Amino acid sequence: MTRLETRVDVLLEIVRCPNVRYCLANPDSGHPCAGIVLDQRSKTLEEYQVPEPWSGRLEQAPILFLSSNPSISMEEEYPRWSWSDDLITDFFTNRFGDGRKPWVRDGRYSLLRDGTHSGAVGFWSAVRQRARELLGVDNVRPGEDYALSEVVHCKSRQEQGVAAARDECAGRYLQRIIAQAGAKVVVCLGKTAAQAVRGAFGVPEDGRIAGPIQVGHRLRYFAFLPHPNARGVPKTFAKCLPGEELGQLQAFLAAESS
User: Which top-rank group of organisms is this from (predicted)?
Assistant: First the structure.
């Protein structure tokens, strides 16, 4: 009897992605992931910052925010390839609370390698605001009320290498992540996430929301907003969605069984 794939199976496959090992060993291969893998300028596999599968309690969070790829910081206390599977799993599952270390404080301040915390991360602040808006409450819990993921999982500066790697990375992992998620609503932030989701799930190009669509064990809505870093455009649900569409998402989230 074939064993069903678990959330931890997917997490560990992403963080130990074979494309990383291959691209570091074959930098001139022309592999679609080579640009993003080599952007870290890591001299050894052991010091490579692992691909980021998601952050938070993926299986229980009712909202999943999906963006292009994670940005990189050399100062953050972030998993390297040399870390154990258990510690890496703890980091991503408990990144926003109850972890072995205070990986992130107050949903916005990341732990640094020197033991201090960073300044507020703008992206994390923005998604918390969108979660408040969608749930209709001020007191939201990062990692529990919402989780974060990407369509390209390797970290890079200013989305370096994302366009080339998108189809390879999303093809390997996107549908499997959504299938493991507890999210009723998946919010795609920016064009890269939107294009990947529309392609993977057959969502029409027009429209700011789509659903309910069966993915994995549940029906889900997809919503599409500009990336928080986009300039000169509205970014809130209230300004981007007609009132009835925002109401649809909120009612779907509030329903006991949906």
Answer: Bacteria
Neighbouring CB atoms inside 10 A of 171's CB total: 12
Is pTM beyond 0.90? Reply is yes
Q: Which residues pair with 187 in a beta bridge?
A: 65, 223
Per-residue model confidence as pLDDT tens digits over 107-135: 999 999 999 999 999 999 999 999 999 99
Contacts of 256 (CB under 8 A, 6+ apart): none
186 backbone dihedrals φ, ψ, rounded to 5°: -105, 120
Query: Is the previous residue joined to 234 through a cis bond, with omega within 30 degrees of 0?
Result: no
Closest CA to 153 of 163, 162, 144: 162
The answer to whether 54 touches 177, Cβ cutoff 8 Å, is: yes
Strand partners, 220: 213
* Each residue's pLDDT tens digit, 42-69: 889 999 999 999 999 999 999 999 999 9
Quick: pLDDT tens for 84-95.
Answer: 999 999 999 999
- Could you tell me the CA-to-CA distances from 170 to 68, 119, 192, 238 in Å, in that order? 10, 31, 11, 29
- Domain 7-254 top-level CATH class: alpha beta
